[in-house]
From TrEMBL:
Protein's UniProt name: diguanylate cyclase
Lineage start: Bacteria, Pseudomonadati, Pseudomonadota, Gammaproteobacteria, Alteromonadales
Compositionally biased residues, Polar residues: 311-327
Organism (species): Thalassotalea piscium
Listed InterPro entries: CheY-like_superfamily, Diguanylate_Cyclase, GGDEF_dom, HPT_dom_sf, Nucleotide_cyclase, Rev_trsase/Diguanyl_cyclase, Sig_transdc_His_kin_Hpt_dom, Sig_transdc_resp-reg_receiver
Domain GGDEF: 161-297
Domain Response regulatory: 4-118
Length: 446
């Protein structure tokens, strides 16, 4: 497809000459006789490149340049000026111009500069897409997902729509890897992503958030609709039999645990919603996996004059329970979701306290031990520490610690050494929070 070039110049004859030359070279051309007209065009339509005069009456070329570079999808700008003052060259390049060509221009040199700028733009776009795409499944990675979902949430705020966020985690995925190898696990992840794409709507934002964890952001939906979509996916997945190209006799069946939250709270941030949905997903895990757990966001309940949040769990179509009251969340132990922890020991608070004392004694040094293992490049110790900590964090309901440790554990398993340092920081903070929380509440029993 021919690239579109916008030429901005106050001199009519220059505009005509450039238009002629550029059309001759195969480009589509738009012209503007000043900054105001140019910005109007850029607001209306996409342009691949801008040729911009520097000295113009009314809005100067510098001013126009600053406005263009501030656009969300700014096209590359080549300055085209009669001035060969080196300060002009430096200033415009510093403000964001791609190149600087002096007038009178030599057509074939100008064409070469244009081709170069367009090539660079294409490469940059390819790199930006890679930065946002998961290389295995080709859906959004965490960066891409968060960027798009954040836009959905801002749009929802402006239009007072609800947004649903679902966090999905494949059940017992480690066992798939253990049985069928990492390549077998990869095939499962790809099939999982394909099914996500086919089950959710085109404008739902889908992403792979971590190893075997995925997220879906559903714009403008009611809880019932979002829950139905999650359930449709969960059921389709449970019925899907995945075969491996390298081992046609092997078949794999998997299930998924889903946490779903729907919010129309204008102050909800994506991070908060994802955290809430993640907590619900771990409830689905604790409650036996292969199910969706959802809870209406507080503000939505408030709008319905409902004091308590509703917890909805759904294992199959005739097991939809909309009346299970949620336990009020306790602040008893910092960094620990008391409800999850206590539920993991069938509600026995005394036993839960004993487990926390054991956790404190066994893991209070973990931060230093993990730091040491990273420092020594001792992968075996690191894997063993993170794997154990991840498991116990989940069972005491320390979900933040669990999530961060899980990320570090995955990186250790995949030997992503360069990620260790930055993944360790949140683990260290989360351990501190939990250890200090236990000390504060159970000090005399430790
Ligand atoms: N094949 C493959 N495995 C991955 C990838 N990323 C993470 N994993 C693996 O995913 C597994 C996740 O295991 P766990 O976090 O223990 O969870 P699980 O076995 O799914 O158990 P539950 O979540 O509790 O049901 C680990 O073995 C990781 O090595 C990947 O890109 N490819």
């Amino acid at each position: 497809m021919n690239s579109t070039i916008l030429v901005i110049d106050d001199a009519k004859d220059t505009l005509m000459l450039l238009e002629f030359d550029l059309i001759e070279a195969g480009y589509k051309v738009l012209t503007a006789n000043g900054g105001e007209q140019a910005l109007e065009i850029l607001n209306r339509q996409a342009v691949d490149l801008v040729l911009l005069d520097l000295h113009m009456p009314k809005m100067s070329g510098m001013e126009v340049l600053a406005n263009i570079t501030a656009l969300e999808t700014a096209p590359p700008v080549i300055m085209l000026s009669a001035s060969d003052d080196e300060n002009d060259v430096v200033k415009t390049l510093d403000v964001g111009a791609e190149d600087y060509v002096t007038k009178p221009y030599v057509a074939k040199v100008l064409y070469a500069r244009i081709r170069n700028a367009l090539r660079l733009k294409e490469k940059t776009q390819e790199l930006e897409a890679l930065l946002r795409t998961d290389s295995l499944t080709h859906i959004n990675n965490r960066v891409g997902y968060e960027e798009l979902a954040t836009k959905v949430i801002s749009h929802a705020k402006r239009n007072k729509h609800r947004t649903a966020i679902a966090m999905l985690d494949i059940d017992h995925f480690k066992a798939v890897n253990d049985t069928h190898g990492h390549d077998g696990g990869d095939v499962v992840l790809v099939e999982f992503a394909k099914l996500l794409i086919s089950c959710f709507r085109d404008y739902d934002v889908i992403g792979r958030i971590g190893g075997e964890e995925f997220a879906v952001c559903m714009p403008n939906v009611r809880l019932e609709t979002a829950l139905a979509a999650c359930e449709r996916f969960r059921e389709s997945l449970a019925q899907l039999t995945i075969s491996l190209p390298d081992d046609p006799d092997a078949t794999i069946n998997i299930t998924v645990s889903i946490g779903l939250i729907v919010s129309n709270d204008p102050d909800s941030m994506l991070d908060d919603l994802m955290r809430e949905a993640d907590k619900l997903m771990y409830r689905a895990k604790s409650a036996g996996r292969n199910q969706t757990v959802t809870e209406k966001n507080k503000s939505e309940n408030a709008a319905n004059n409902n004091k308590d949040n509703e917890l909805v769990t759904s294992k199959d179509n005739n097991n939809l329970n909309t009346n299970t009251p949620k336990q009020p969340e306790s602040e008893k132990y910092a960094g620990i979701d008391f409800d999850i922890g206590v539920n993991n020991v069938l509600g026995d608070e005394g036993l839960f306290e004993e487990i926390l004392v054991m956790f404190y004694q066994d893991h209070k040094q973990d931060k230093d031990k993990i730091a040491q293992a990273i420092n020594d490049n001792d992968l075996l110790t690191l894997k063993s520490l993170t794997h154990t900590l991840k498991g116990v964090a989940c069972s005491i309901g320390a979900m933040e610690l669990f999530n961060h440790t899980k990320a570090l554990d995955n990186a250790a398993n995949d030997q992503k050494l360069q990620e260790f340092d930055y993944l360790f920081k949140p683990v260290a903070l989360a351990i501190n929070k939990v250890i200090n929380g236990i000390e504060t509440t159970l000090g005399d029993k430790l």
